[in-house]
Every structure is written in structure tokens, then in C-alpha cells.
Amino acid sequence: AMIKSHPLAFSMVKIGGGIYLAWIGAKVIWNTFFVKRAKPAGTAAELSVSEQTKPTKGTALRAFRTALGLSLTNPKSILFYVSFFVQFIDSSYAHPGISYFILAIILESFSVMWFAVLITLGAALLRSLARVPSLRKLGNTALGSLFLFFASKLVLDA
pLDDT tens for residues 37-49? Predict the structure, then answer.
């Protein structure tokens, strides 16, 4: 209803989103080719564990709490919970909030497990790609180009 009543505002949001995506894509490509990074004394395999960057104590827990808080207070998540979970809630139950809470805990648990798998695999892939600079450049160029493609598609469809 909002899109139909304010098409100009929706078009402006789409164009703004396209400009933002183009900026991100251009920045990735620019940083890939024109920003020089400081290189460590040896390759990743040569560095000892103590020389590699380690998170400080409590950083992982703080990051987990922040991510969980953002996930639980995300308006899209809340709307999803309300619109999707309603079909699984017995309206005659005296405390439907408990049912919502249990379903949200189940969903968040699966989300944590899925992201843990993605992070673990992503970190392993990053370590293997860090050894081959040409693959890193190719991947960053492909990513930046993908962002530029989506930006152009979004702006041209506006």
C-alpha cells in the first residue's frame, strides 16, 4: 500500500540503494588494485600462532551478544516471527507469548549453528586464498563487479 501511495519515495529509496551498492562495489575494486597493504614478515604458514592476531578475552562473547541482540531486535525478524509463527500458535492457549518465545529460540538456535558453519568454512577458505594473491584479486574484482551489476540493475529498474 505504501509503495502504491508513494511511488516517488520508493523510487528515491531504490536509487539511493543503488548508489550505495555502486559505492561499495567501486570501493572494493579500488582497494583491490590501488591500496597497498602492509605485508607481514612471512607468509601465513611461517607465522607462529603467537604472532597471528588473536582476539582479546571476552571479544567473542561480546560479539555474540551484540549479534544476538541485533538479530532479536531486527524489525524484519520481528515481522517474520509475527507473520510466520502465527500459523503455529494456538490462539486459545492462555500464554501465546511463550509459544512465540519457544519458536524464536528454536529459530535463533538454528541460525547460530548455520552461521557457525559458514564462519568456520569461510575462515578456512580465507586462509587458503591468502596464500594466492592473484585469486584474492580475482575474487575481490568479481565481488565488486557483482555489487556494481546489482547497483545498475536497481537504478535502471527504478
Answer: 665 555 554 444 4
